[in-house]
Structures are given as structure tokens and as C-alpha cells.
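Task: sequence design from structure.
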């Protein structure tokens, strides 16, 4: 079957490929819906996932079940938003798949309940776009409403009926918010007899007249008993009937049954088994193939009937009535797939989660009508007297290729044909509103226009920036004024130079579109998009990316830090998404490039656990940013060593005051916010030394560093009494006496890092040998690094050299290098 020769199939493919319209693809049995799906999966560049309501349907469609992919329970979904957090938990990969999804294909949509479709909508909105039906993901719904309907128990319908008009998918609340396109495939490939096709259509549409009924009932043959080689299969309404017929027929055959056990590798749930796990077969047993022959020979297809002529350990010989030669059948493999993100290409790929390996056969004297859906039979006996569901008789009759190949075990009556009036009304509406090429062209153009317009809408950036400013204002006592000012300064330029300019550019886009609606063919517009991409790329980097990178988001309060950092991360991700889409526009707009760029940008990487390690700060808003980085690195390392929250060493506000006031003695240090006598006693010596060393290295004298009164200080501290004895000298004496560093720290009630700082001082004076603290190998590597480095900052040095190098070793070597240079 070629799309080129079938206008309906080509139209359906083009709607999927070139528009964002939701599509209901329907058609009579045998019109090629399954083949269409297979071709779509092979050819479409859109990122898609295929789901189906049952395990077997999912395996046949090459997808996964709705319930497993969306993690939805089997009960009524009238309060899905209240589902427990455990049921809603998705792993990072699943979230990335949903966030980057272009197309969701739902096969056998006729069996999907309305509430289940709304549950899918809830999941997609949560992880993609909460303001659009199905999160903005395009739906392709494939199925025939005149075939099998959703299974709804009375107790379930009692819950659902107050929420939905019908149980069918088209009653979904989310779907009713869309203008989905319905395309009906009309060319039947399974049956070639127009008379038989006409009868089937009348059954399907519940307009079976007397002539058609009489023609159908001519196939009623009382007490029909087929020959053993005729290859008839009985289609019945209940599983127990089919099982009873198959078991009794097998027992009637002479000889002992041979057991073939399936090989199951990995994860392959029982409800998805395509045939029996334990398959009992005998010579002369009638069997049905349950898989298509994928080899070049195409010797069998799913639903082909035959008889076993010989059984060997590794193969089974099957003779089919229409074939001259026997078919040698060997075990085949079915794969249970799951969807994942390819780490190299970032594409959605099918990953094999498990396999089921078995002979592709099952006993076939009988099968249920439900399990026959999608199959084709040369000869069938239909027992539909006990039909109990909408569409069952039509499914059974339409499995047959010809009227002559069908035998009725009981006459068909209008009473046997159960149709739903609501379904008929919906199908009539579909038939009267078939889209055409003009509709396709308009939808295609609208899809392009919406994609390109979305690139230049910056309202979400403004909203996220407003959210950050609101969070900072609400928590002003816990954050620095520097941080508040930084984001407040961003508001006006983002509004004026991004949002407002973007809105003006959208008006220009609209003007160009009036000249040529097809964006990809509109050369003047393409030129404007290229220039606009350069402008907005520069502005996003200047107004959003760079300010965030130069922001210190370290906040003492853990809960507030998490809240603000998450919102800032959303703003940063939104900006980077825009940059990727703009980059795709620089060489001309195309739908394919935009979809790919957007999808890759939306993939979230695994977030590392918070470790309070921040990038080096290089901000003009902060005096002495290098000192700021040194003090922050020392504070974080000290807090780690003592297993304390960092603010217990000194707060973020104190850090800013330290670099503003540069205290180099106890008296000035005590004026820093939060630096009481206890903290000064515990940490003061090291803080003063770090600041003093910085001042010395940068040529700042004490006279150049005026002592400034802290306006936020609520009370004046008493002057810190300077120790009468040099504290560093005490440490040196204990060390020379052979006392270990840990014991010196314990005896002096100081941190080991403080003790190491004292000793580093004496390495700098030449009184202590560097070899006592650093091996020759490490000394060489650290010296080489700092001789080439642009700064003496410890954090980038440790990141470059590795965690085997401690901060103390780095500090020892720096002091040693000072000694050598002096």
C-alpha cells in the first residue's frame, strides 16, 4: 500500500507531519490503519510515543500500555488530580520524554474510556504546558468506534456517569476543548467483494435491511462440521467458550501433546503474552499464526490458519490450506519496549525492556471476537448469538476475507447487533466533516506561524522574574540587599528590551504573513527572523544569562534558598530554551529544526545534590570579588569540617560586610554583623589573616581601609581584647614539640584548619619546611598550577587539581611560593 495512491492515507500522514492538529483516524476494518501506524513510525521525524489500552494491543502496535506509561491505575479517573504522590512520581527520564514529546499516538482508541483520556491530559499538562489541552502535545487517535468499545463495569459507570455523557473517548473533557480533525479511511484492503463490503457497512452503521440480512443468513449452516483440513476457526463471544473448544479438539487427537515453554528475558508482563507461555501442541492440531513473517519470504501473517504436520524439537511444520508447501516454523521473539532518551542524540528511542520467545502459534479451532480484532481469516465460523457489547458482531463478520469463507452457527438478527446511538451520531458527524487539502494548507500554515511566534514571546521570562522579585521581597530579612537589587534591576530592561520589543516584532511577523502565509517560503520574513535572532540572542545573554551567572544565590535559610534557586533555575532554563530556538532561526526557519532544538533544550539533566559549591564570582557590584570568593570557600570548608551550617561560621550578610569593610583586627571584626565574641574567638584569627594577606597582596594599607560603622548593627560591641601572647607562636611551639595537628586543635579549642593556617604562616617566613606538610609530587603540581593561573583562588585550583589536594595543602604551597619569591 502506498500513500501516493491513497489520498486519505496521504492526507492523514500530512496532517500528522505538517500540523499540530489533534487527529482521529478511523475507518472500517481492513482499511489499513495498522499499516499506516507502522509507516508513520518509520518516516516521521516527530518525537512520538505509541500507547494502547491493552498489553496485546500495545505489543502489536510496537508501543506500551497507557496505564504503564502514564502510571495510571485501572479504576475510574474522576479525581486524578488527587492521586497520591506515590502514583504520580515519574523518574527523570520519563519526565524528559513527556517534556520533549511532539506526538502521542493512541491505538485502539475505541477501547479507551473518556476518563482515561482526561487522566492522560492531566499528566501531559503537569510536565509540559498546563494551559493547553494535553500539554500542547499533538494526539493521533487510531481506531474504529464501530468495533470494540471500552470495558466499563456497572460500579464504575455509577461513578463516571455524573461526570461524562458517555464512556467513549470523545466525551473527554480535554478533547472537547480542542478542534480535532477526523479522517475516515474508506478504501478496504481486507475484502475485495463489493457485495460483502456493502453488507459489512450496513452492519457497522446499524442499517441492516432485509435483503442484506437474508444474504448474510444464507451463510447460516446448521450443525456445520468442517473437515479437518478446511482451516475453519470459530469466533465466539466469551473466553471460556474458546478455551473449551480448543481443549476438547486437542484431546480428540491421538498421541501425547508436546509442551513448548516460552523463554522470557527481562521484563515482559503476563498480560502482554502474544501466545501461551506453556504451549501444548499435537500433530494435526489446527493452529493460527500470531505474528507476521518479517523475512523476505512473507510465508505467514498474524491470523493465518494451518495444521501441524510434524513436530521436532527445534521446529514445527505447518500446512496451510491455501499453500502448496509446508511452512517450517521456528521460535520468534516479541519485544516489550519502553521509551528512553538516547544520551548521544537526545532523541526518544525504543529500548527493549524484555523479550518473549516462543513459536508464533496458538490453538485455533476457536478464538474470542475480542482477541480477533486486527486479524484476518480465510475461513471462520461465527457464533455471535451471545454478543453482549457494542460492535462485537461487526468485528466478527469483518474478520472474514470473503462471504463464502464465513459460516454462521446461529442466524444473525437485528437484536444481535448492538450499536450505541451516541456513537452513530458521532460517526455521522465525522463523515460530514472530512478535511480536505485546503483545510490541510490552513492548518499547516497556522502550525508554522504558532511555532515561530512562540519563539518571540517573552512573557514567561517576565513572569518568572516577577516571581523571583516577589520571593526576595517576602524574605528580605533572610537575603542580602545586593541580591534583591540585582534582580530588581533586571525587571525594567527585560520588560522594555525583550517583552515589548518582542511584541512589536510579532506585529511585523503578522504583516509579513499577510503577504505569504507559509513561513518556510516567505523569504522577506526569513530575513527578518535571522536579524531578529541576532538581536534577541544578544539581549537574552546581556539581560538574563549574564546577570544570573554573576549572582551569588547562596542564602543562609535552606528552605528559602531552595525556593529562590528553583525559580531562578526556571528563568535560566527558559532563557536557554529561547537561545536554542533563536539559534535554529539564524540560518532560516524550518519546523523540523525548531522542533529538534526545542526538544533538546527541554531535556533536564540529573540535578546533583546541593553541595553549596558555587562558581567564582566576578561581579562589579561587589568590592574585592576575589576576596569574596576566598572567604566563601574558607567558610564552606570550615563548615564541612565542623559539620555545621555555613551561617554558623558567618552569614551571607556578614560575608558582604567583610569585603566592604575589610576588618584586619579584632576591634573592627566585631563590628561585622553577627560576629560576636564567641565567633571572633573561634574563627577571627583566620578571617583576619585571609583579609590581611589579601590587603598585602593588593597593596592596600591600613590607612586605606577606613573603619565604617555598620548601620545594621543593633548594639555596639565591646572592643575585642587582643591576646597578649601570639596565638600562632603557641601553635608553632606545640608543633615543634611533636604534638599532632588534631591534638593541638583539641588542646587549644580551635579547628584543625585554624591550626594549619597558623603553621602556613611560618612556612611563609621560612621557619617551617614545606616538606613536613606536602609531598614533592604534590608540591610540583600545585606550583605549576599557580604559576600559570590568573588568580590565587583556592576553589578553582582544587577543581582543576582534584579532591586529592586539600585546601590546606594549596595554602601551604602558596605561602611557600611567597617565601621563595621574597
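Answer:
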Amino acid at each position: 500500500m502506498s500513500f501516493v495512491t491513497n489520498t486519505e492515507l496521504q492526507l492523514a500522514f500530512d496532517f500528522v507531519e505538517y500540523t499540530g492538529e489533534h487527529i482521529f483516524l478511523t475507518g472500517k476494518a481492513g482499511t489499513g490503519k495498522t499499516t499506516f501506524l507502522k509507516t508513520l513510525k518509520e518516516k516521521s521525524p516527530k518525537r512520538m510515543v505509541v500507547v494502547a489500552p491493552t498489553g496485546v494491543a500495545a505489543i502489536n502496535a510496537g508501543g506500551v500500555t497507557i496505564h504503564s506509561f502514564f502510571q495510571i491505575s485501572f479504576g475510574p479517573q474522576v479525581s486524578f488530580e488527587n492521586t497520591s504522590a506515590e502514583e504520580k512520581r515519574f523518574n527523570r527520564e520519563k519526565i524528559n520524554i513527556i517534556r520533549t514529546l511532539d506526538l502521542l499516538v493512541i491505538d485502539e482508541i475505541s477501547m479507551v474510556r473518556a476518563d482515561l483520556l482526561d487522566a492522560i491530559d492531566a499528566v501531559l499538562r503537569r510536565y509540559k504546558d498546563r494551559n493547553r489541552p494535553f500539554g500542547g502535545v499533538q494526539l493521533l487517535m487510531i481506531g474504529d468506534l464501530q468495533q470494540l468499545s471500552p470495558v466499563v463495569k456497572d460500579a464504575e459507570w455509577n461513578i463516571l456517569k455524573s461526570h461524562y455523557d458517555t464512556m467513549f473517548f470523545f466525551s473527554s473533557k480535554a478533547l472537547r476543548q480542542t478542534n480535532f480533525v477526523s479522517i475516515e479511511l474508506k478504501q478496504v484492503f481486507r475484502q475485495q467483494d463489493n457485495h460483502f463490503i456493502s453488507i459489512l457497512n450496513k452492519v457497522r452503521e446499524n442499517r441492516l435491511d432485509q435483503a442484506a440480512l437474508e444474504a448474510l443468513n444464507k451463510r447460516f449452516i446448521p450443525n456445520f462440521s468442517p473437515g479437518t483440513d478446511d482451516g475453519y476457526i470459530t469466533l465466539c463471544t466469551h473466553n471460556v467458550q474458546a478455551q473449551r473448544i480448543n481443549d476438547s479438539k486437542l484431546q480428540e487427537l491421538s498421541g501425547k501433546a508436546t509442551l513448548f515453554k516460552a523463554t522470557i528475558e527481562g521484563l515482559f508482563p503476563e498480560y502482554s503474552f502474544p501466545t501461551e507461555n506453556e504451549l501444548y501442541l499435537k500433530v494435526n492440531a489446527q493452529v493460527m499464526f500470531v505474528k507476521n513473517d518479517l523475512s523476505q519470504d512473507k510465508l505467514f501473517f498474524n491470523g493465518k490458519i494451518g495444521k501441524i504436520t510434524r513436530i521436532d524439537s527445534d521446529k514445527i511444520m505447518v500446512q496451510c490450506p491455501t499453500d502448496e508447501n509446508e511452512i517450517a516454523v521456528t521460535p520468534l521473539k516479541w519485544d516489550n519496549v519502553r521509551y528512553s532518551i538516547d544520551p548521544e542524540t537526545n532523541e526518544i528511542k525504543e529500548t527493549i525492556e524484555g523479550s518473549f520467545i516462543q513459536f508464533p502459534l496458538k490453538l485455533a479451532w476457536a478464538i474470542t471476537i475480542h482477541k480477533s480484532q486486527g486479524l484476518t481469516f480465510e475461513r471462520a465460523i461465527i457464533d455471535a448469538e451471545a454478543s453482549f457489547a457494542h460492535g462485537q458482531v461487526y468485528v466478527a463478520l469483518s474478520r472474514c476475507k470473503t462471504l463464502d469463507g464465513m459460516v454462521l452457527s446461529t442466524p444473525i438478527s437485528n437484536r444481535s447487533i448492538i450499536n450505541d446511538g451516541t456513537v452513530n451520531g458521532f460517526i455521522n458527524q465525522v463523515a460530514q466533516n472530512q478535511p480536505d487539502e485546503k483545510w490541510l494548507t490552513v492548518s499547516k500554515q497556522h502550525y508554522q506561524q504558532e511555532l515561530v511566534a512562540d519563539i518571540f514571546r517573552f512573557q514567561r521570562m517576565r513572569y518568572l522574574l516577577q516571581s523571583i522579585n516577589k520571593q526576595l521581597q517576602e524574605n528580605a530579612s533572610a537575603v542580602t540587599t545586593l541580591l534583591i537589587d540585582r534582580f530588581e534591576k533586571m525587571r525594567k530592561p527585560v520588560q522594555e528590551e525583550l517583552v515589548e520589543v518582542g511584541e512589536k516584532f510579532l506585529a511585523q511577523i503578522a504583516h509579513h504573513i499577510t503577504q505569504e502565509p507559509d513561513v518556510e517560503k516567505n523569504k522577506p520574513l526569513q530575513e527578518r527572523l535571522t536579524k531578529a535572532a541576532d538581536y534577541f540572542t544578544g539581549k537574552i545573554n546581556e539581560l538574563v544569562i549574564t546577570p544570573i551567572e554573576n549572582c551569588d544565590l547562596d542564602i543562609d535559610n535552606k528552605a528559602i534558598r531552595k525556593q529562590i534557586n528553583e525559580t531562578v533555575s526556571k528563568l535560566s532554563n527558559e532563557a536557554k530554551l529561547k537561545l536554542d530556538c533563536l539559534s535554529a532561526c539564524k540560518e532560516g526557519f524550518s519546523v523540523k529544526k525548531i522542533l529538534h532544538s526545542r526538544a533538546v533544550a527541554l531535556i533536564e539533566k540529573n540535578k546533583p545534590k546541593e553541595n553549596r559549591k558555587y562558581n567564582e564570582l566576578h561581579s562589579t557590584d561587589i568590592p574585592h570579588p576575589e576576596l569574596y570568593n576566598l572567604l566563601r570557600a574558607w567558610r564552606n570548608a570550615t563548615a564541612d569540617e565542623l559539620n555545621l551550617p555555613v551561617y554558623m561560621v558567618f552569614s551571607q550578610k556578614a560575608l558582604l560586610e567583610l569585603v566592604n569593610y575589610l576588618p584586619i583586627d579584632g576591634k573592627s571584626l566585631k563590628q561585622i554583623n553577627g560576629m560576636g565574641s564567641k565567633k571572633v574567638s573561634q574563627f577571627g584569627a583566620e578571617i583576619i589573616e585571609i583579609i590581611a594577606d589579601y590587603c598585602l597582596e593588593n597593596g592596600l594599607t591600613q590607612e586605606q581601609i577606613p573603619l565604617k560603622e555598620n548601620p545594621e548593627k543593633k548594639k555596639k560591641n565591646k572592643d575585642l581584647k587582643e591576646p597578649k601572647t601570639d596565638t600562632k607562636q603557641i601553635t608553632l611551639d606545640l608543633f615543634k614539640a611533636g604534638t599532632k595537628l588534631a591534638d593541638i586543635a583539641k588542646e587549644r579549642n580551635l579547628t584543625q584548619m585554624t591550626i594549619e593556617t597558623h603553621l602556613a604562616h611560618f612556612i611563609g617566613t621560612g621557619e617551617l619546611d614545606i616538606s613536613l606538610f606536602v609531598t614533592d609530587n604534590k608540591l610540583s603540581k600545585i606550583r605549576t598550577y599557580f604559576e600559570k593561573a590568573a588568580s590565587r583562588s583556592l576553589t578553582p585550583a582544587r577543581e582543576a587539581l582534584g579532591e586529592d589536594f586539600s585546601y590546606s595543602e594549596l595554602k601551604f604551597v602558596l605561602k611557600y611560593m611567597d617565601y621563595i619569591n621574597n
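The CA atoms of residues 763 and 769 lie 6 Å apart.
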